[in-house]
Design brief:
The chain is α/β, with parallel strands linked by helices and 275 residues long. It is 41% helix and 22% strand. The protein binds 3-hydroxy-5-(hydroxymethyl)-2-methylisonicotinaldehyde (PXL).
Length: 275
């Protein structure tokens, strides 16, 4: 069986980061090891959330794993809370990302042209130094712009997206996949660039009428799960985009759907049929 280690916060309510990554990776038939970087009562879009930072646990946990000879098929980082955590992820990758395994970085820190409340531009630039070490990175357009110091645009063309992808891989990542790429109203999708084989991939699907937090984490967990199962990055990205979209659709249709996260659990059978 394959094994992924994912490092991100655990927001106890909110359906994002680890509460999404764990069930999705497990449902895909892959062992999910975790390092929680912080415990929050909810994700940061609620007001009044509590936070307990767990940075001091990262090194003791990885030291123990090193002693036990534990290995991983992939290391996946998501929402990180500090410069120190980014440095610790680089060290961890040096130890655990060896021949036959890969580093997958979701620089979860911004959306819709804005950084999340906890971050500033320096943090975004520093996240780019972790992306530089990665095999695959999956920023949205906002995150890409903050990392690259490029202008964020609401409306753009293919040349704009291709330029971002090229610059993201110039940082050092082998493959960059941009999420939320929409060239016309009513559709959205993903566009990726494999710098090793000089190949672009674009996948478009109908755009759901609402957006929710945690959907980037659903996309990332599914995309990496697909790749670790042996799919090409293109097939994995397509299936992950479809699953994320279906999760949003089910939430909108659910009269009891909540507004802080999506019904990804209900869409698990849909995902498994596509693998
Ligand atoms: O889904 C990204 C995410 C992860 N973790 C926390 C967040 C968010 C987005 O808001 O607040 C704590």
């Amino acid at each position: 069986m394959k094994r992924i280690v994912t490092v991100q916060d655990i927001s106890c309510v909110g359906k994002c980061s680890l509460t999404v990554a764990l069930p999705i990776i497990s449902a895909m038939g892959i062992e999910a090891a975790i390092i929680p970087t912080a415990v929050l009562s909810t994700h940061t879009m609620f007001s009044g959330f509590t936070v307990k930072d767990l940075t001091d646990q990262i090194k003791p946990i990885t030291d123990h794993w090193k002693k036990e000879g534990i290995t991983f098929d992939a290391m996946y980082t998501g929402y990180l809370g500090s410069f120190e955590q980014i440095d610790l992820m680089k060290e961890m990758a040096d130890t655990f990302v060896k021949e036959g395994s890969l580093l997958f970085v979701d620089p979860a820190m911004a959306d819709n042209g804005k950084l999340y409340p906890a971050f500033n531009e320096d943090f975004a630039k520093y996240m780019a130094t972790l992306c530089a070490k990665a095999d695959i990175i999956v920023p949205n357009i906002t995150e890409a712009c903050f990392m690259l110091g490029e202008e964020y645009k609401e409306k753009y063309d293919e040349a704009y997206v291709k330029n971002l992808l090229k610059k993201l891989t110039d940082l050092g990542a082998k493959i960059a996949i941009l999420t939320g790429v929409s060239f016309e109203e009513g559709t959205t999708g993903v566009m990726g660039y494999d710098s090793v084989n000089d190949e672009y991939y674009h996948y478009t699907h109908a755009k759901q009428k609402r957006s929710y937090h945690g959907t980037g984490d659903i996309f990332s967990s599914t995309c990496l799960g697909g790749i670790v199962r042996g799919l090409s990055w293109k097939d994995a990205a397509r299936i992950a985009a479809d699953y994320t979209s279906e999760s949003i659709r089910l939430t909108i249709e659910d009269p009891k759907g909540n507004d802080y996260g999506v019904n990804f659990e209900e869409a698990v059978p849909y995902l498994l049929e596509r693998l």
